[in-house]
Amino acid sequence: MKTKTLYRTVGEKEMLLIIESNFKKFPPSAITGMYFGTKTSEIVKESFYELFKELDMKFYEVFPSNFKLDFKLINETKRKLKYNLAKFHFEILLYKINVSHESYYIFYKGSRRESEIKEFVLAFREKFCIKENSLYIFDNKEIANLIDVYPKNDDQYIKYADSIITVSDDWEESIINNPFKDFKYNEIINNK
User: Fold this and answer.
1) Residues 134-162: tens digit of each pLDDT
2) CA distance linking residue 107 with residue 190, whole number of Å
3) What is the pTM of this model?
4) Which residue among 48, 87, 150, 178 is least packed, with the fewest CB closer than 10 Å?
5) Which are the contacts of 42, defined by CB distance < 8 A and separation ≥ 6?
6) Where are the beta strands (DSSP E) in 2-129?
7) Is 67 left (phi over 0), alpha (psi -120 to 50) or beta?
């Protein structure tokens, strides 16, 4: 990606422009706030309010306070979501993020019907996910203590696999899938 940075000072006014030739599409939840200096004109602020009116965005004004910079909320916009996540009962057990991927481990308290789980996955991603992601959805909250256990012994592996409703990867996919009910799972079950 080619990036060109222009920096110009005119009197006491400074301007920084960053121009990228290949823009990536970011999910709406990736950008959450914007900070304005105290001398930012109202017309500039209004322009940004309009530009981001369809996103969940908080706008702040930065000002000096006791030898440091402080800020206050001056405006907020909300995006219209396609899905209603509020109708689902769930709890995030663990959240992991790195440079390119995020993983959510979720205790899901709702219906096990495939259509409802798929809708939950889409609603959850719309609301929370900002990168490529994996959603691990469980029907058992007590499984949380096994999430970061590697390797799992046979009993732990069976308990973990039996608690998974689905593991859903990628942005668009919402397929019901349990990758832990695999060859190892069947081997453990058959040897008991």
Assistant:
1) 999 999 999 999 999 999 999 999 999 99
2) 28
3) 0.68
4) 150
5) none
6) 3-10, 13-20, 33-36, 57-65, 68-77, 90-97, 101-108
7) left
